[in-house]
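User: What would this chain look like folded?
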Amino acid sequence: MPDAAARSAGGCEDDAPIDAALADKVRFLSDPSSYPDSHPGDEGRVEVMETHFSWVFLTGSHAFKLKKPACGAGFDFRSIQARRRNAVAEIRLNRRLAPKVYLGIVALTRNPSGRLQLGGDGAPVDWLVKMVRLEAGHMLDQRFAGGHWHYAELEAVAYRLASFFASARRAALAPPAQIVQVRGELRRARAAFVEVAEPALWCLAAPVLRNLDAFMVRRSRLLRRRVEDRRLVDGHGDLRPEHVYLKGVPQIIDCLEFRSDLRRLDPVCEIAFLALECSRLGASPLKSRLIRRYRRRTGDMPPAVLVAFYTALNAVVRARLAVEHIAEPGTRTREDWIDRAASYLAIAASQHQQLSR
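Assistant: Here's the prediction, encoded as structure tokens.
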């Protein structure tokens, strides 16, 4: 149930000191002259991107990620020590599926004259994750959008993920905890759909939620057995097409490094989530390959009804996220977010026949 942005929101006391103004760091890292090891042709080519929790600075050859001094449910990045620990974890965890991309951490320091430097001998004021800059056109979502993909590449992604799940560290979780987690997702989704007060959307959501609730009762033994059989792993946690790089050996980036509890997943849930997002892009051939490769590589034989359940559950979570975005400022209108939520709920509803078995 990948849902990193919304499920990481939460309240924190706003009293931790910030060692240097974030705005100063962003200005410094936006300046091409701040990168002493830039390759020829990199000058003047720093692109700046802001995400929920980070600033990302793209030079011609590399990407540098600076975590914001933010906090929420399950994480607190307000101290430099916490941001360094998270940077180390981000490198370690992402090297599992993208060893050629994550290069290491780099200190952002302040020299005796008070100037910021990348590296250097001054006192660290922050830490950056340094990555190889990937070509955006070779991300899976872009390839699907342009129609430039090959079955052999999808097979390579399926094989890479299956091998990862086969060797991933098993996640310790008591069966009741998983049931509580899923019921919590359904409860939050129901509340969000009621709050948005969109009758047409609620008409789509209500039967889907009823079906998922009924499945939880009727097939609870199946879900408990997945935990008892130690099928859950410390996975990726946010397995979206825009995180899958196809050029050469597939590299899968941007795992959910700062919430281990949200990475404790059934691999079938992760597979269903990636397949769901690909199907929304109009590309469905990946789902059967992912499941087939997973079964062959791991010996795990999840029934089709479990795949349908996780597909519907992931779709409901994504629909909830869409309606929660309505209240945020941005370029998309309320109607855009409602349409997006409706498209996810339509996919969830399409799993009804399987869920009824």
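The chain has 14 helices and twelve strands. If you want, I can go into more detail on any region.
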